[in-house]
Amino acid sequence: MLKSNFLLALLLSLSTFVSAQTFTLMSGDVGGQATKVQEANTFGCDGENVSPQLSWENAPAGTKSYAITMYDPDAPTGSGFWHWVAFDLPADVTELAAGAGSKGGKMPKGSIQSVTSYGAPGYGGPCPPEGHGIHQYVITVHALKTDKLGLDANTNPAIVGFYLWQNTIEKASVVMYYSR
């Protein structure tokens, strides 16, 4: 009897632990493979350049704003390639519609999209060199402890990254893969 009570208590505590909510990023558009819809329409690529739909839940306590980044560590640059850098998204925002980060898209009021490795602000989709193999594109939402980073749309990704490093409480990512 003592053994079965112990096992029951252990199972109950494990179920509580397993069901703990974690900061999670999801996408109805990607999470596996990118398509021509997300592919860039520059640098020799002819995709639609539509930023993916994103949603997140279970933000940590103290979250005052969010940032979104998309990074390709496989780019043959020696330093990767930043495809999307957005910050100062209000704390009450938990979703971006498909195309929100694209040219003409509707980002949340007050948010800023700064320059990417393409040299322009906003979403710039995957465009790996032909025959270079499969690249991974890491899309990350950062829960920040500040409501504003104090940066503008001309701030380069390395500086934004420095400020994110100082202000991120937690982050969550999805990865999509693409090759040409």
Main β-sheet, in a few words? 6 strands, mixed
Taken as a percent bin, the fraction of beta residues is 25-35%
Shape from CA axes? globular
Low-confidence stretches: 6-18
Derived from helix and strand composition plus strand pairing, the structural class reads: alpha+beta
Q: How many individual β-strands? A: 9
Please list the strands of the largest sheet in the order they lie side by side: 2-9-8-4-5-7
How large is the radius of gyration? Answer: 19 Å
Overall mean confidence score, pLDDT: 91
Helix content: 10-25%
Annotate the secondary structure layout:
Elements: H1 2-18, E1 24-26, E2 32-33, E3 54-57, E4 65-72, E5 81-90, E6 95-96, E7 112-113, E8 135-144, H2 157-167, E9 168-178
Parallel strand pairs: 2-9
Antiparallel strand pairs: 1-3, 3-6, 4-5, 4-8, 5-7, 8-9
Describe this structure in words.
- There is one protein chain.
- 16% of the residues lie in helices and 29% in strands.
- The strands form 2 sheets. A 6-stranded mixed beta sheet has the order 2-9-8-4-5-7. Strands 1-3-6 form a 3-stranded antiparallel beta sheet, with no helix packed on it.
- Strand 4 and strand 5 form a beta hairpin.
- The chain is an alpha+beta fold and 180 residues long.
